[in-house]
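We treat protein structure as text, and this decision shapes the records that our systems exchange. This encoding replaces a full spatial description with a residue-level series of whole-number codes. Below, we set out a record of this kind in full and without editing:
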Amino acid sequence: MRALQVTSLSSDLSGCELVDLPVPKRRPGEALVRIHATSLNFPDLLMTRGEYQFKPEPPFISGMELSGEVIAVDTDSSLAVGDRVMGGSKTGAMAGYAAVPERNLRLVPEGLDYPKAAALGAAYTTAYTALVEQGALEAGQWVLVHGASGGVSLAAIDLAKSLGAKVIAATGSPEKMERIGALYAPDAVIESVGRFREQVAEITDGKLCDLVLDTVGGDIFDESTRCVAFAGKLLVVGFVGGRIADIATNIPLIKGFSVVGVRAGEYARRFPDRGKSIADEVSRMASAGQITPAIDRALPLSEWRQAFEAMANRELVGKVILIP
């Protein structure tokens, strides 16, 4: 099979190579999946550099998230040969086949093709964990979503709108604003530069936001502390902007808001029943057509470099899918 292998860590993708490898052997408790689509996630890029919290030792096959068809599985498994599944692991998805722990796979929701199924899981379960599980989102609340062209942030916009919230989508890229607005019709799209609190206050008639979802960090986090309403929550999902922000504790004390760290995968591991419920609800909403992943482009695996560079250069509005 063809696979994208990280043979050494580098800042410029020079340690990545498309190679021919044997189809992996399935162990008990695993399903062998013929991969139809792989979704590129920001941690995939970070792992090629050794900058993610999970640091696999090279060589390893890149890719966390996939969709495909079950080829082989244990006889007593809840899955069957021929099932359409989605899921994955921390590595191994950018290949023709993968041996995946059965517990990491779910049936593809009705009505979703393989590319959308590959784009659904991580982004939407993270958004749901942040907004609903840890943020206690209610209909009518104001939600500010930063990094609005990214997979998790777009999922958060889609999810929040479907649950009746009022959404402000914020992006640092003016040329992306119209595309973001067209995808999920947020109540407002703003450019997140400088003192954007004034824009947020004007849009919300001075109420500010009950929830702020921040995937960017740095200056965006700093200014977001001024955008949270009293008793609101600032949900920290990531730091794609590079700088990990600090906060003086008098700021959340005086304003009465909470800073909440969101690690959806770890949350699901520590609370497996809640993790299953979140994944079930995401699948149900997708089957019902209430949420739909945004895909910027689908490329053959041979064009992996273009996909990674588009992500690194912040060109995307939605997910990029690789087809083996």
